[in-house]
Amino acid sequence: MRVTCVVNGETRQADDVWPGESLLYVLRERLGLPGAKNACEQGECGSCTVYLDGLPVCSCLVAAGQADGRTITTVEGLATGSGEEQLDRVQRAFLATGAVQCGFCTPGLIVAVHDLLARDPAPTDPDIREALAGNLCRCTGYEKIMEAVRLAATS
Amino acid sequence: MEFLRPSDWAEALAAKAAHPDAVPIAGGTDVMVDLNFDRSRPAALLDLTRVPTLDDWGTDGDLLRIGAGVTYRRLIDELAGRVPGLALASRTVGSPQIRNRATVGGNLGSASPAGDAHPALLAAGALVELASTRGTRRVPVTEYFVGPKRSVKTPDELIAAFLVPARPGAEQFAKVGTRNAMVIAVCSFALSLDPETHAVGTGIGSAGPTPLRATEAADFLAAELPWETRGPVPAAMANRFGDLVGAAARPIDDVRGSADYRRHALAVLARRTLAWAWTDLGGAA
Predict the structure, then answer these.
(1) Which residue of A has its CA nearest to B36?
(2) Where in chain B is the domain with CATH 3.30.390.50?
(3) How many Cα atoms within 13 Å fall on the side-chain side of residue B106?
(4) What is the reported pLDDT for A82?
(5) Which residues of chain A neighbour B73 with C-beta distances below 8 Å?
(6) Which terminal residue of chain A has fewer beta carbons within 10 Å of its beta carbon, N or C?
(7) CATH 3.30.465.10 region(s) of chain B?
(8) Going by CATH, does the domain composed of B170-280 fall within 3.30.390.50?
(9) Which of A22, A58, A65 sits opposite B98 (nearest CB)?
(10) How many angstroms away from the CA of A30 is the closest CA of chain B?
């Protein structure tokens, strides 16, 4: 089947899509957007988090055909350019605080934090933990991640 | 594999009638896991996310009718005051990403004994609205589940909505798990106290082959609670209620917990939810 959707502001099209494959697979393997990561494939880890029509979702749990005609923003779509100055404030905060270890969970966390700060510009620590409950960091770097969110909220 | 995408309810029912083996998909939080792990290869997927009426909710006489496609996120944001027990249960579902997609319709479709919505629906006395090209029927949720992941829904039927009383009583929900998010219930319990009719509703999750009610416990509480005075609930009454709830469970030993632990935990959850719900009604602590 053919899937057409708006990804990071551009209309993109993928052909010969198997209807049972996930949006994550379409993004990574068909559209050349490897930012969202493939880890658990069951919605547990949050590393594949993207915006679908403005809401953060696990792209591994969206069937490719369900994304047809929808609007998607991936971590690649958050920065206005490739220079460090053009990164989103959440990305800059993760860099500044060293909230990145192996980096695998980072893209999903960036999207989840971006959404949190759009809804709540000054979240408390419990609010942050609740908002990030669906994103696992197997390096267990949560303290630096908390620091990054606090910094992003004030920058 | 075919991908069927009806754009309205009539088309969806026609598609299901023509393809009874098609697997309906809404939030995908169960269906896609099975596909990703090669556990199932259905002949067709029936995408319900383009059927607008499934996202509607509104009153229907004395009942509140909530479309099967309303997500947990929306239940929490829009309906917490109208379905308080279900909203509490919704907050324990998965993570924000999961709640943005997952639906009560999907929970009912999967019919897992561990589904988080089920105890709250049982306690509230909900109806499940099933539809096919043959017609529409409303099944009490108490009769809906027939076994692990099995329900009375026939292969040509789709879940249209669920209905609960438009004026809820005091409703509470509690769940035991290994962490506060992304967890399948070890066991869960929902309680509803109706101050008008003095009726008590109960729902037990993840402690039997299906979600269960604790009818003996509910009858005991309905008869014994000091409804008129709203005086304190005697400890002996709360303990007896908890014991009856534990006895109503039919748990097994499994990877998430032992049967004994589940009975014990359910008795504790029953006492706690009773104390919270009684306080909600202005009862003495």
Answers:
(1) A41
(2) 170-280
(3) 25
(4) 81
(5) 55
(6) C
(7) 50-165
(8) yes
(9) A58
(10) 17
Tokens of B44: 């067709």
Judged by DSSP in three states, A4 sits in strand
Enumerate the residues of chain A whose CB falls inside 8 A of the CB of residue B28. Answer: 61-63, 66
Q: pTM above 0.90?
A: yes
pLDDT of residue A81: 86
Question: What phi and psi, each to the nearest 5 degrees, are found at residue A33?
Answer: -120, 90
Mean pLDDT of A137-146: 96
* Structure tokens belonging to residue B214: 């604790």
pLDDT at B270: 98
- Distances B22 to A22, B6, B255 between C-alpha atoms, Å: 18, 13, 31
Whether the Cβ atoms of residue B200 and residue B222 lie closer than 8 Å to each other: yes
Every domain of chain A and the residues it spans: 3-76, 84-154
Residues of chain B with pLDDT under 70: none
Which B residues 57-116 touch A at CB under 8 Å? 73, 94-98, 100-101
CATH for A3-76?
3.10.20.30
Comparing CB atoms, the residue among B1, B5, B182 nearest residue A134 is B182
Is-contact B156 B179, C-beta < 8 A?
no
Dihedrals phi, psi of B44, to nearest 5 degrees: -155, 150
- Give one DSSP letter per residue of A40-105, joined into a string: -SSSSS-TTEEEETTEEEEGGGSBGGGGTT-EEE-GGGTSSSSSGGGS-HHHHHHHHHT--SS-SS
The phi, psi pair for A101, rounded to 5°, reads -105, -95
Assembly ipTM: 0.97
With a CB cutoff of 8 Å and minimum separation 6, the contacts of A132 are A46, A109, A112, A113, A116, A145, A149
CATH topology of domain A84-154: DNA polymerase; domain 1 (1.10.150)
3-state secondary structure of B232: coil
* Nearest CB to A43; choose among B1, B5, B29: B29
pLDDT band at residue A85 under the 50/70/90 scheme: confident
Average pLDDT over residues A119-130: 97
**In B, which residues are within 8 Å of A60 by CB distance?**
32, 36
CATH class of the domain at B50-165? alpha beta
A with B: how many residue pairs have Cβ under 8 Å apart?
91
Distance CA B265, CA B20 (A): 40
B188 and B265 in contact (C-beta within 8 Å)? no
DSSP code at position B70:
-
Distance from CA of A20 to the nearest CA of B (A): 7
